[in-house]
Structure formats: C-alpha cells, structure tokens
Amino acid sequence: MDALASIARDSALFLDAVRAARPDARVPACPEWGAADLTYHLAEVQDFWSAVVGPAEGRGLDGDDVRTLPRPDDDGALPTLAAEATARLLAALAGRDPAEPCWSWHDAGRTVGWVARRQAHEALVHRVDAEQTAGRDVSSADPEVAADGVDEILRVLVDGIPEWATFTPDGSTVAVAVDGPGETPRSWELAFGRLTGTGPESGTAYDLDSAQLVDLPGSTTTQVSGAAWDLDLWLWGRGERDGLVVHGDAALADRLRAVAGQETQ
C-alpha cells in the first residue's frame, strides 16, 4: 500500500467535496459537526502529525509540544488551511525511512511508517464524511487500502489493553473476513469481554464492552464477511451491514460494530 499516494488522493477528494457542501450541511457520522468543523478537524490532524514527524534533517515534536493549529475566523479560509496542512504532512513523510522513530499515542506506533499508515486511513474515512456531507455517492477505495483499513481498525483501534486495565473474556467470539471478488482473503478473530480498570492520570473508572484479537482459527461461531471496502465502511460507521454476509449470530456482528464505534470518530 502506498500510504502517501492514498493521503494525497483522499485529501484532494475531501477538499473537492467540502467545497461543494452546503454551509449548513451536517456530517452524517458526526452530526454535531458541520462541513466547516470537518474541514478544520482534518487540517488540525494533518498539521499535528506533520509536526510530530518533523523535518527529514531534524527531530519531530512530542505530541504534548505541538501547538494547536489556529482556526480562522472566516470559514471560507478553511479549505486553504486544509490544503496547506496536507502539503506539510506529505512533505514531512516524503522519502522517510518507515522505521524512523517518532512520538505516538500508541505503544506499537512510534515510527514514521505507523504515522503514514494512520494518516492514510484518517484521510480516507474523512473523505467519505465529506462526500456524504455534500450528498455525493461515496467514491470507491483500492481494495488493498480498504483491507489494510480493516486490519488497522481491529489491530490498532479496537485491540489493546492498557497496563492499568484488565480484559475478562465472556466466551463470545466473532470473525471478520475479507472475501470480495478478486480480493486476497484475510481474516481476523476476536473475543468479546469487559475491559475494566482506573486510568492512573484521570482517575476515571472504566467498565467497557471490548473485543481483543485472538488466535482461534476455525472456532468462532459467527463470521462477518464481504468486500474489504464494505467492511471498512461498516466498521467505521460510514456504511450499513446490508452488503455483508453474517454467518451465525447477527447480534455479535452488531456488538462488534458498537465496540469499534467507541474508538472511532
């Protein structure tokens, strides 16, 4: 997967769509946002990660040291702000060694390659938001990129237990499988349970429905399968389950979507 090409393509489609959206249009997946809020969000995210990656000849910033991108008073300036943020992100990532270290909120993500992958999927998902906000049909995605998006949401956003938390499985399992026409088959198995614990910094007590990746080949009783793009859109809450096939308990498929929804915006 060419992450930089994906960022460039989907950021351009994003800008084209937000420019076409009505000023009062709401974002279907995030109804508290309007088109202007969506535009500022992607600009802020891309600006943040360009500062984290930093210039090729120097060290990037830790997340806590990155200044927040100022939002212009005039919403009409937001598309230009977003285009400039995309250019900075692509310039920061271009020609870099994917293994080069940098800051990340994710324990396994402290490399430039991780940032490039994460930002490719960030641009992809919000491009979908922009198209839906503008009332357009959603543009297709490369099946390889979409399949990687399924892997990312399950492996990076859903899976993982903080050091201060405990995961207690409840015996329910589900599999997700890419099996679209002409696509390379891939699958993931997850166990459901409760994630409990108290955040050491906030003092907040958590008791959440959760799912963790497990190695249970062939033992899951419920499977959600379909084309990679349909799975990616569904897991992100940008598409319905209509185009997918569920073998087994459909309630477990809905449960997985709800768990994923806790980690996505």
Automatic annotation (TrEMBL):
The terms under GO molecular function for this entry are:
metal ion binding
Sorted alphabetically, the Gene Ontology cellular component annotations on this record are: plasma membrane
Where in this chain does the record put each Mycothiol-dependent maleylpyruvate isomerase metal-binding domain?
Answer: 5-130
InterPro entries, per database record? MDMPI_C-term_domain, MDMPI_metal-binding
Q: Which residues form the MDMPI C-terminal domain?
A: 144-255
> What's the name of the protein?
Mycothiol-dependent maleylpyruvate isomerase metal-binding domain-containing protein
